[in-house]
Design goal:
Radius of gyration of chain A: 23 Å
Number of strands of chain B: 0
Organism (chain B): Pedobacter psychrophilus
Protein name (chain B): HTTM domain-containing protein
Structural class of chain B: mainly alpha
Structural class of chain A: alpha+beta
Number of domains of chain A: 2
Order of helices and strands of chain B: HHHHHHHHHHHHH
Radius of gyration of chain B: 20 Å
Oligomer: heterodimer
Low-confidence stretches of chain B: none
Number of helices of chain A: 6
Distance between the termini of chain A: 69 Å
Shape of chain B: globular
Strand content of chain A: 15-25%
Mean pLDDT of chain B: 91
Distance between the termini of chain B: 29 Å
Transmembrane segments (chain B): 12-28, 40-58, 67-85, 105-129, 141-159, 202-222, 229-260
Keywords (chain B): Membrane, Transmembrane, Transmembrane helix
Chain lengths: 181, 274
């Protein structure tokens, strides 16, 4: 059975679902070709479809606890994903005046049509550092079963050397915190 | 292969058994809600239901309560188990659907949006319908959604220009896997990634192959005859993604359930009457 026949059957026997299908197809096509972004629930797979800007590097981090580097890939996959995505995002926000990338995009496109509370609660952070440090310390203590006395995060740019292995291009100290024992 | 067909209760058993296995895997992998605290950072993107989670305070409320996190986890396990046992019931699938959508929104909220993991959300949905016709219609819709998702991904690689860039595969590795390579210098995946960074033209051929493979899912809109081929293509595609781009698909593979050969007599019956 093909899609056309399917839609015909649905149209004849379950009209509401037929209209849902049309809405879903339209939403997905608009997400894919007009807005170029998934707008839940109109999921699109556009990752790796765009050409990367030339000379762009991967940004990552080095995490130092109690003066020793921690390899977050040694954690369980789920725990490692959480720590890596949160630290990467913390670095991004810190470098972007604590604003999400959509803050300025939405401000310029829809401006005051969106209530200010949406910008402030969703796309802008106040006093992020203290809450983040406290969460990170407790998360890492839980993971490593160690009491953490110092915490450093460096933002690093990675590139590829002539052996086609990753190499660190530069590093910037993003966070340096000592805790009382 | 095409002669094998499954009825609704067979499918229900398979789908919810897979969910149960996935939940155990998630537990072992540290991905369940009660295994996490509440980081102050959020990942809003253009995900409007998720905005409501944040604005209403629901995300903070649930993450601040160990009891609620445990209840959601228990309801996932028990609803999937009971959905297997009670083959006629639509109540437990409803509980499961509610819990898995809640779980997934909450989990995305602490680990960044992972579009490659959405498969977990859908195969449970057809089972909330008591009426066999509605179940069959929704199950088939899930199948078309699945095929459309991959076909569109192939088209977007043309529209967005990736397919015209000979460095696309090596750039993809450079932009998303160098940290993995740095911290896992001896792994087989790192060796493969290095190989395709050096042999970028071979990498490009793989990228082209992946785009063609994705566009091959258009077949799913024309006939069900080749679903077993799509099944194999899906596994090849995602296994390659896992090896070359470190993109796991354990949370997503369950979407393959839509390619299982459902007996759709009801649809055929209605077709004759058109």
């Amino acid at each position: 059975m093909n899609f056309k026949t399917y839609l015909k059957q649905v149209y004849i026997n379950w009209k509401n679902f037929y209209y849902f299908c049309l809405l879903f197809i339209s939403g997905t096509l608009i997400s894919a070709f007009v807005i170029c972004q998934t707008i839940t629930p109109f999921y699109i797979y556009s990752m790796y479809s765009y050409v990367f800007p030339q000379e762009s590097n991967m940004t990552s981090f080095r995490l130092i606890i109690n003066e020793k580097e921690l390899n977050t890939f040694s954690f369980l996959k789920g725990e490692g994903d959480v720590i890596r995505s949160n630290i990467n995002r913390f670095i991004y926000l810190k470098n972007n005046n604590y604003k999400d990338k959509y803050y300025d995009k939405l401000k310029s496109k829809v401006g005051n049509k969106l209530p200010e509370i949406i910008y402030e609660k969703i796309f802008h952070y106040n006093n992020l550092d203290s809450g983040f440090i406290s969460w990170l310390k407790s998360f890492l203590e839980n993971q490593t079963s160690m009491k953490i006395t110092s915490l450093k995060i460096y933002s690093i740019n990675l590139t590829v050397n002539n052996q086609f292995k990753p190499t660190q291009k530069n590093k910037v100290l993003i966070l340096n915190k000592k805790f009382n024992e | 292969m095409n002669n094998i067909t499954l009825n609704r209760s067979d499918l229900k058993t398979i789908v919810f058994s897979l969910y149960l296995i996935l939940l155990v895997y998630k537990f072992l992998n540290g991905e369940l809600l009660f295994q996490h605290t509440n980081p102050p950072i959020i990942y809003p993107i253009l995900n409007f239901p998720y905005w409501l989670f944040i604005l209403s305070g629901l995300k903070d409320f649930i993450f601040s309560s160990n009891l609620l996190k445990t209840i959601i986890t228990l309801s996932l396990f028990s609803a999937s188990f009971l959905s297997i046992i009670k083959t006629k019931s639509t109540f437990y699938p409803k509980i499961f659907c509610f819990s898995i959508w809640l779980y997934q929104f909450l989990y995305f909220s602490i680990v960044a949006y992972q579009p490659f993991a959405i498969g977990i959300l859908f195969p449970c949905l057809p089972f909330i319908f008591k009426d066999d016709f509605k179940f069959t219609v929704v199950f088939n819709f899930g199948r078309y959604f699945f095929c459309g998702l991959y076909f569109l991904a192939g088209v977007l690689k043309i529209v967005n220009g990736g397919i015209f860039n000979i460095y696309q595969m090596s750039d993809s590795i450079k932009m998303s896997c160098l940290d993995y390579m740095l911290y896992n210098p001896t792994s087989l995946k790192t060796d493969l990634m290095s190989f395709f960074l050096y042999h970028y033209k071979l990498g490009y051929l793989l990228y082209l192959g992946a785009a063609l493979l994705e566009m091959g899912f258009i077949l799913g809109f024309l006939t069900k005859k080749f679903d077993y081929i799509l099944f194999i293509l899906f596994l090849i595609f995602h296994f390659s993604n896992y090896m070359l781009l470190d993109l796991p698909f354990t949370n997503h593979f369950i979407i393959l359930a839509f390619l299982l050969p459902l007996r759709d007599d009801l649809l055929k019956y209605y077709t004759k009457n058109i």
